[in-house]
Amino acid sequence: MADAKTLRVLIVDDEAPARALVREYLGAHADIEVVGECANGFEAVKAVSEHAPDLMFLDVQMPKLTGFEVLELLDPAPAVVFCTAYDEFALKAFEVHAVDYLLKPFGRDRLAEALGRVRERLAASGAGTAAAVAPPETSATPAAPTAPSAAALSAAARAPGQFAERLMVRDGALVHVIPIEKLDYVEAQDDYVAIHAEGKSWLKHQTLAELEQSLDPARFVRVHRSYVVNVERIARIEPYAKDSRVAILHDGRELPVSRGGYQRLRERM
Amino acid sequence: MLAWLLAGLLLAEFLRLIGPLPVSHAHAFAVPAMLVCGFVVLSAWWACRRYPLVSTPPLKVLSGQIGVALQASAVWAVGSLLWELVLVRLGDSVVMRADILRNFGVLFLIGIPLYLLSAVVHYLVLAFEAAHEAERRVLESQVSTREAEVRALRAQLNPHFLFNSLNSINSLVGSDPEGARRMCEGLGDFLRRTLALAARDSVALSEELALVERYLAIEKVRFGERLGIERRVDESALGCRVPPLLLQPLVENAIKHGVSGRLEGGVVRIEARREGARLGIVVENPVDEDAPARAGAGVGLENVRRRLEAFGAEEARLDAVREPGVFRVLLTLPARDSETEGSRG
């Protein structure tokens, strides 16, 4: 049923000639509608929430947000075909369930092949959410298709073996980038985390455990079941009740510290 | 070992010549004594390192070595004396006290030249080793110079730059065929110049700037309005000699880690100035405040630093400064003109 449907496509690349090329190639396909072009990740996040495209051609290295960081911010994300001159991101691309990976320079036929894969995936998922299908390599096996986990997405957005340098939060069509050194503390709130930095706070759809994994344990300590705190922000720790303490931050805010949290803190400080 | 054994027999004959000694006693005494001597003179190994010929005044070498010779010889002669007394006590033959004392004196006198001979041999060995070491170091520095050149060339022909450029050409073929041709020409020209410059030991700054010019023209197609360029180069600096492929990696870094990471792009500034005997070059670019410091930039800078070292300019240096919003690389080189380079020739 998806075969007859017109595909709505977004082109994201910071280089104008690269966007023009994809647009030109797509011009040969009658069932494709280009809904927009974006020159950076911020524009891409905004355009996806405005146009809800079926497919996104996505560059990896762009100003402010990389292609992987853009994906981390989109929920649900459209089907993705990466376009880049770098082959080293291919593995990561399939971890975040990209449909295809085009290496620049690529020709018309290669792009047509990618479109074919996108259609296959959209057809297989039926409902039209491409994110719920396995990558092409594994599509031969009847393994249950799953969407990439939030942890896989956020891991893909970082360099391997490194901790996050910054956190991205989406607020409607707006994207906030929070450098890690400005982060005060993070608080668990059901399926969300509240990220507190510079006197403001943002909600992000992620569990505290997932977020904690991306943070450098030398700088951020889980002081309580619901709190991870930037060690540099702690002014002092005072006893609160039997077996529990309270961490007082430089700005006067108080966070509960559990017994285990106190032990972890003592190890770090 | 065999030599020392023969020397022992010789010594035995000699001792029998100058004094009446039983043959068996002479051999039992002289052969082990000479073998021990072989070990004692090895002390020159230590003494020769303590008084190296190059850095010690000759008089001190002489007095030092003679001192060691006397001590070594005395130790040997005393040891031998004790051995001879043991032999006598064991009663293998009758030996006069005067003969024992004479043997002691002879050994002491022979020990000194033997030790000094050993010292000379050790000095020769040391000198040979030093020469060998120096040769190895020259070879090593030649290899590292070549390595630096190869690395610079490889960095120069960054495949991603080529892939992206080809992608731009691919795009222009559809929208602007004339522009595509110009870019093919520009890319070819850039690559040809790169290979030509890489084959030389030094080039004029003007040639380096011309290469950078070609490079920027190609990148300008990719980045369009986002990439700005500002040059301030003194006329007098243009003729200065620099290592080839010095500037282009810096400009590439400025774009890759600076301008391309900013939404609004930015201006790459290139400055070159001659101040007396020094040539100062600055490559500066704006950086995104939120962007974390990229690890890749360090490798590029390290390459340039190696190029400077391989150029043999000890006064040459590279300083990288990151200020809020700006990244700046400063190169300082001795200002050598093309003419002086020719006369060095």
Number of helices of chain B: 11
What spatial order of strands do you see in the largest sheet of chain A?
2-1-3-4-5
What's the CATH superfamily of the largest domain in chain B, by name? Answer: Histidine kinase-like ATPase, C-terminal domain
Rg over CA atoms of chain B: 37 Å
Strand content of chain A: 25-35%
Shape of chain B: rod-shaped
CATH class of the largest domain in chain A: Alpha Beta
CATH architecture grouping of the largest domain in chain A: 3-Layer(aba) Sandwich
Distance between the termini of chain B: 55 Å
Radius of gyration of chain A equals 21 Å
Distance between the termini of chain A: 60 Å
Overall helicity of chain A: 25-40%
Largest interface: A-B, 26 and 26 residues
In sequence order, what are the helices and strands of chain A, one letter per element?
Answer: EHEHEHEHEHHEEEEEHEEEEEH
Structure commentary:
- The complex is a heterodimer of chains A (269) and B (345).
- Chain A has 269 residues and is of the alpha/beta class.
- Chain A has helices at 16-27, 41-51, 67-73, 90-95, 108-125, 150-156, 208-214, 259-268; strands at residues 7-12, 32-38, 55-58, 79-84, 100-103, 166-171, 174-179, 183-189, 192-197, 200-205, 220-224, 227-230, 234-241, 244-249, 254-257.
- Chain A folds into two domains: 2-138, Rossmann fold; 163-268, LytTr DNA-binding domain (OB fold (Dihydrolipoamide Acetyltransferase, E2P)).
- In chain A, 29% of the residues lie in helices and 32% in strands.
- In chain A, the strands form four sheets. In chain A, strands 2-1-3-4-5 form a five-stranded parallel sheet, sandwiched between helices.
- In chain A, a hairpin with a 2-residue loop joins strand 9 (192-197) and strand 10 (200-205).
- With 345 residues, chain B is α+β, with helices and mostly antiparallel strands.
- Chain B folds into two domains: 2-145, no CATH class; 157-344, Heat Shock Protein 90, CATH 3.30.565.
- Chain B has helices at residues 2-18, 23-40, 44-50, 58-90, 97-156, 159-175, 177-198, 205-223, 247-258, 296-310, 338-344, and strands spanning 203-204, 227-233, 241-242, 266-275, 278-286, 317-323, 326-334.
- The longest helix of chain B is centred in the middle third of the chain and has 60 residues, at 97-156.
- Classes of the chains: A alpha/beta (269), B alpha+beta (345).
